[in-house]
Amino acid sequence: MSIKNLGVDDIPIAGGKAANLGELTGAGFDVPPGFVLTTESYDYFMEHNDLTGVLESTMKDLDVNSDAALQEASHTIRTAFEKGTIPKDLEVEIVEEYKKLGKGKYPLVAVRSSATAEDLPTASFAGQQDTYLNVSEPKSLLICVKKCWSSLYTPRAISYRASKDFDHSKVKLAVVVQRMINSEQSGIMFTIDPNSELPHIIIEAGYGLGEALVGGKVTPDTYVVDKFHRKILNKRISNQSWKLVRGESGECVRCDVPVDKAKGQKLTDEQILELAEIGNRIEMHYDRPMDIEWAMEGGEMYVVQARPITTVSVGNDSKGSKEEDNKMESSRTILVKGLGASPGTAGGVVRIYNEGMSLDIVKQGDVLVTQMTTPDMVPAMTRAAAIVTDEGGMTCHAAIVARELGIPCVVGATDATTSLKEGMEVTVHGQMGVVYEGVEKNEEKPAAVAVATSVSVPVTATKIMLNVGVPQKATEYADLPVQGVGLMRIEFLFTSYVQEHPCALIEQGREDELVNKLAQGIGIVGKAFFPRPVILRTSDFKTNEYHDMKGGAKYEPKEQNPMIGWRGCSRYVTDSYRAAFVAELKAIKKARDEMGLKNVWVMLPFVRTVDEVKKIEKMMNEVGLYRSRDFKLYLMAEVPAIIFMAEEFAEVCDGFSIGSNDLTQLTMGADRDSDILGKMGYFDERNDAIKRAIGHLIKHAHKKGVPVGICGQGPSVYPEFAEFLVREGIDSISLNPDTVVKSISNIAAAEQRLLLEAVRSQKR
Ligand code: PEP
Ligand code: MG
Asked: To test ligand 1's pocket by mutation, which of 711, 716, 717, 718 has the most ligand atoms within 8 angstroms of CB?
């Protein structure tokens, strides 16, 4: 059967290699012409020579861990295959198809195995079976076909299948016979950087036939191309002193590369970009990152193989890093385990902090170990190399602040404050959620800004915003490729600049001081991002957190459940807190009017009723803040009430921002700070109930022409959640600084997929 009649659906009969080549031919890519002997031919040959019996008796009770046994079994089976005869009618068909490739003459062909379990997304069987090059006449072609079939039973292939739990009898072999490309240049291409998972196309190119390069015998040039901007980012030119070429009678021979060419660039910039474009199109066609082999002959670029990349995981972690993690786990003593809440690895001296102690005990580079962090601990947290807490879930205070600071954090570690001892040297692994004994040498920091500024990112239709906490970090983060700040939590200004309860300051006649300090912090962030909008969220401390601020005890009631207590908007409309909220508004007004920062807008947290929003807008008007083209009022969608009443709330605001941390907590009835529920999986933004709530909000807000964004940490943590949001039509996504670059690529890819699906469904 001709390759061009195949597609990916034919993997079961044509094997991955042939089916993919057929798919590519059908999609208009230049693939060397050829034909395939499907698994039907394999079965026919097996039957004709009664090979099933040989197979069964040899494989039965085979000890796959014994090298000698593997060798012997392989020899027995392969000999039986190669001594077999191809049925006459099949032989005639093969020779006929072969002749067609040479337009009457016998052409040089490659005979390539195409196993039905090869080139599948989950398990790369690459290189497990044989390939024969430069086959030049019918007799050797038929011998090579049999050798290909028998190569399904090399010792290596048998043990590989055993290790992956593939049933031997289910794996069959198709064979591709394809016109040889006499390549002047050849190589491979990855449509994603398999190490960093950045949106780069990595091309390796060398002179001559690809076998030397694929087999690692020569060092190729490496080019890195920015996938979205079609720009060459980096070139590493190798010194290739020899290459493989086709000899007189078709065999591969080694020949020297002239000195001046050896050190030269193997492909021109134009060719690099042309190849990258092919890579991009192939990835678009398959809708996933691909590993491609290519060859160039007479200036024509051919695709000789393409398969999905199997080493890039869909989630946040690459397979490589997981393997590293496992290696690390087995070689180190784990002291405590919890939830990995902020990635990175860092070591230092343990400082156990208990309530009432001076925060000064935490010195630069220490590992802060405490029951749970509170907002007043932020100054000490900024000095810590890593944070470990007994309590807390993925969105607790420690987790949020650590992510913002770019330091590793493990939460919900149960007894860290007792298991770890003051002064101990430890390493915190924030991804895996473990603390090891001793200080790890190769620390890995999530260097958000360093990555972001050296990398170009795709433009997305979804607005990309940033979650900013500590104002001191704003100038650094302003270099990130974002369109503004989607969430600036004012609590960080209280902990960094004010450090006292606002009501205490007001009662002492120090309102101006309060306003000035808040305005100073707002100014730093507003200026750093100017003219991009900075959405400042007014205070959302809970009573227990306010209570712990200097002078707070007098103003804060003791609540049983502060998380669902007197927080957010409900405070602003209460007489006992109103003045403190007005001070926040005055600080915003000051930043906008006196500092000229018209990019500072307002967002209200923990909104429960339309009525309170109306009252708050009135208070804003009273200090001179009016909603307009350059002053927007956003509402956080955290309490399910706002979801159900989306259209009513849409009448009183300029936009919604989903607080998925609280929305998950309240929809699932799962305390976000509960390590128990977190570990049991109850607190998970990807739950269908939350997704349905979000879909409902977007639909109804859009009906009223009001945009919806998200600032909870869900899309920063789960790429598939970000994709879900894109599919639902979210307008903006606000991300944690450490995940901006990677998330933008995910979001862009999701948008492309969506577009492609729309185009395809239109064509149907
Ligand atoms: C949220 O609830 O998702 C949110 C962003 O607010 P916070 O985490 O500060 O409660
Ligand atoms: Mg919230």
From this structure: 711
| Closest listed residue to residue 552, CA positions, set 496, 490, 502, 514 | 502
Q: How far is CA 330 from CA 152, 344, 385, 520, in A?
A: 35, 18, 24, 49
Domain CATH code at residue 126: 3.30.1490.20
pLDDT attached to residue 455 = 58
Concerning whether 569 is annotated as a catalytic residue, the answer is no
**554: in domain:** yes
Judge if 245 and 153 occupy the same domain. no
Q: Are residues 570 and 619 in the same domain?
A: yes
**pLDDT confidence of residue 439:** 86
Task: For residue 711, indicate whether it is catalytic.
Answer: yes
Q: Are residues 229 and 171 both part of a single domain?
A: no
User: How many angstroms does the Cα of residue 488 sit away from the middle of ligand 1?
Assistant: 11
What CA–CA distance (Å, rounded) separates 652 from 649?
5
User: Which atom number of ligand 1 is nearest to the Cα of residue 713?
Assistant: 3
Residue 277, classed as helix, strand or coil, is helix
Distance from Cα 40 to the centre of ligand 2, integer Å:
60
CA 521/CA 539 separation, integer angstroms: 14
> What mean pLDDT is predicted for residues 575-579?
97
pLDDT of residue 123: 37
* Mutation to probe ligand 1, out of 403, 489, 721 (largest number of atoms < 8 A from CB): 489
The residue contributing the CA closest to ligand 1 atom 5 is 712
Which tokens is 640 given?
């399910």
Query: Strand 231-236's sheet: what is its strand order?
Result: 231-236, 221-226, 200-207, 185-190, 290-297, 300-308
From the list 475, 618, 615, 454, the residue with the least C-alpha distance to 534 is: 475
Ligand 1 pocket, Cβ-based, cut-off 6 angstroms: 395, 400, 487, 489, 540, 638, 659-662, 711-712
- The answer to whether 148 touches 130, Cβ cutoff 8 Å, is yes
Residue 340: per-residue pLDDT: 82
Residues 189 and 175 in one domain: no
List, for residues 731-752, the tens digit of each pLDDT value: 999 999 888 988 998 899 899 8
CATH number of the domain enclosing 244: 3.30.470.20
Q: Whole domain around residue 334: which residue ranges?
A: 321-437
Q: Is 380 a residue whose pLDDT tops 90?
A: no
pTM of full prediction above 0.90:
no
**Distance (Å) from CA 562 to ligand 2 centroid:** 13
Ligand 1 midpoint to CA 489 (Å): 9
Tell me the β-bridge partners of 105.
none
Task: Tell how far CA 520 is from the center of its chain.
Answer: 36
Mutate-to-test residue for ligand 1 from 636, 685, 735, highest number of ligand atoms within 8 A of CB: 636
Q: Residue 555 — left, alpha, or beta (φ > 0 → left; ψ -120 to 50 → alpha)?
A: alpha
| Alpha helix (H) residue ranges in 102-241 | 138-150, 155-163, 210-214
Catalytic choice (397, 501, 547, 700): 397
d(CA 713, CA 560): 26
